[in-house]
């Protein structure tokens, strides 16, 4: 049986925490797309773990698989594994032979393309994600399995490096460093390959997972990013370069669509919106210079934005820069519920909104005289939508007694949750009232 965890908004909805919550019942946790652009937080025994590539389940000793739909930076992979070992864990991590590998030139190109794009820049994480998926689609990518064969690696590098080097020098006019030196890359990546082999990490992902499922194993699929930044269903071009939706799960693991579809698909919802990156955001509160478009953001609402940002710790982990925040966007969630087929929802960060006098949601959009209940297909149209809001009574700060279940929540908070659940015709499985595992109210366990 499988349970797929999917971000329903713009990423950082608290997916890592929910994987951790339900992960005890899983034998294997699998990432199916993305790479080290993700940052998933697990709080366990008072310790905080931030994982970007290794599946969140490994914090509790569950086998973690990085599927073929992912792009893997071996340097990040080993750093993450080593850090977990230093912290006393024994992570069991397997890597799909068909997963594509991020090379240093991908990171360089990510940076220069962002600069060149100007208004079209997505505010990427700079990890080389886009360029690596470009090489994959361009059939010049290098896969984990290729690293293990020295002749294949040498041959593949020859073409991939010459192509990317020409792009860097002839199109962007940069002076290429060792990131574009095929011999240097060959030596470095053969080193990574030896470690992958010595630790027996490489698997034929689809077969590995299917055989485990046939033998009765339960598998959790850990989505990264969120539906509104999915390459097909998101706010293109301000998106990431993979299918973050549940659609990505079969393609990115080698499991059959029916296997995923027969299981549960849990949508993770942040009780408001946060956004790291550019592009329109109709329910945005306040503004963040450099990310909010010139005509975006509610200029009157910066106090509310600051309140939510401070309560929710919505500041960049590395840069400390404020993240964009906004009210919950129901058309975005209806779009996500339809595209993913959510069987349940986990609504996080309900505590963050506590203390506000009133809480608003974007209930619908108005565009060219029409009322829309879901996202329009172009980002230009989305940017022109005005928001039909719905106002809820706020709820006071509360001291959650999670053991008392759902009834521990203030009545106004329950009204808010019931509205979300009814609008999406999807039951709520869990409610997050704090970052820790013991700060989540569980109504249903999908396993
Ligand atoms: P992910 O990328 O979806 O896994 O989410 P992140 O880990 O990037 O961001 C979520 C942040 O919110 C982390 O710091 C979590 O510890 C924290 N968090 C998760 N759920 C809750 C919640 O219900 N309330 C509060 N206050 N924080 C939460
Ligand atoms: P998790 O898994 C939030 C955003 C970037 C940028 C766009 C493209 O922690 O929810 P990329 O580096 O992927 O090419 O950047 O996607 N982005 C995320 N935003 N959470 C994430 O991951 C993200 N991963 C990428 O900010 O706008
Ligand atoms: Mg994150």
Please characterize this protein's 3D structure.
- There is one protein chain.
- It contains 14 helices and 21 strands.
- With 447 residues, it is an alpha/beta fold.
- 51% of the residues are buried.
- It has three domains: 2-97 and 201-266, 3-Layer(aba) Sandwich (Adenylosuccinate Synthetase, Chain A, domain 1), CATH 3.40.440.10; 101-196, Adenylosuccinate Synthetase, subunit A, domain 2 (Orthogonal Bundle), CATH 1.10.300; 269-442, Adenylosuccinate Synthetase, Chain A, domain 3 (Alpha-Beta Complex).
- The radius of gyration is 22 Å and the shape is globular.
- It has a ten-stranded mixed β-sheet with strand order 9-7-5-2-10-1-11-16-20-21, with helices on both faces.
- Guanosine-5'-diphosphate is lined by residues 7, 11-17, 39-41, 43, 312, 348-349, 351-352, 432-435.
């Amino acid at each position: 049986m499988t349970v797929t965890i999917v971000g329903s908004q713009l990423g950082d909805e608290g997916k890592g925490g929910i994987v951790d919550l339900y992960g005890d019942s899983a034998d294997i946790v699998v990432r199916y797309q993305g790479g080290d652009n993700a940052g998933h937080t697990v709080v366990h025994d008072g310790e905080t773990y931030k994982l970007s590539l290794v599946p969140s389940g490994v914090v509790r000793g569950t086998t973690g698989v990085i599927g073929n739909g992912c792009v893997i930076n071996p340097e990040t992979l080993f750093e993450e594994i080593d850090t977990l070992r230093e912290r006393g864990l024994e992570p069991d991590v397997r890597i799909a032979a068909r997963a594509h590998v991020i090379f240093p030139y991908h990171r360089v190109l990510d940076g220069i393309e962002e600069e060149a794009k100007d208004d079209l820049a997505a505010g990427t994480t700079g990890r080389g994600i886009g360029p690596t998926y470009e090489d994959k689609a361009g059939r010049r990518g290098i896969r984990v399995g290729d690293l293990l064969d020295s002749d294949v690696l040498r041959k593949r590098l020859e073409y991939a490096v010459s192509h990317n080097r020409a792009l860097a020098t002839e199109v962007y006019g940069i002076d290429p460093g060792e990131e574009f030196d095929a011999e240097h890359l060959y030596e470095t990546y053969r080193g990574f390959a030896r470690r992958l082999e010595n630790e027996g990490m490489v698997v034929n992902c689809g077969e590995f997972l299917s055989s485990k499922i046939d033998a009765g194993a339960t598998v959790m699929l850990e989505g990264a990013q969120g539906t509104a930044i999915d390459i097909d269903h998101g706010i293109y071009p301000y998106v990431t370069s993979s299918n973050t939706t549940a659609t990505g799960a079969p393609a990115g693991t080698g499991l059959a669509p029916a296997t995923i579809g027969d299981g549960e698909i849990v949508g993770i919802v942040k009780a408001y919106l946060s956004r790291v990156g550019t592009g329109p955001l109709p329910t945005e509160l306040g503004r963040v210079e450099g990310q909010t478009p010139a005509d975006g953001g509610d200029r009157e609402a910066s106090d509310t934005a600051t309140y939510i940002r401070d309560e929710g710790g919505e500041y960049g982990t590395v840069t400390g820069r404020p993240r964009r925040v906004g009210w919950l966007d129901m058309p975005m969630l209806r779009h996500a519920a339809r595209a993913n087929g959510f069987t349940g929802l986990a609504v996080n960060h309900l505590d963050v909104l506590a203390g506000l006098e009133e809480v608003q949601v974007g209930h619908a959009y108005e565009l060219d005289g029409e009322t829309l209940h879901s996202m329009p297909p172009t980002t230009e149209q989305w940017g022109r939508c005005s928001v039909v809001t719905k106002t809820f009574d706020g709820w006071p700060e509360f001291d959650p007694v999670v053991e008392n279940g759902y009834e521990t929540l203030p009545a106004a908070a329950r009204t808010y949750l019931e509205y979300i659940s009814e609008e999406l015709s999807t039951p709520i499985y869990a409610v997050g009232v704090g970052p820790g595992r013991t700060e989540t109210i569980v109504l249903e366990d999908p396993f």
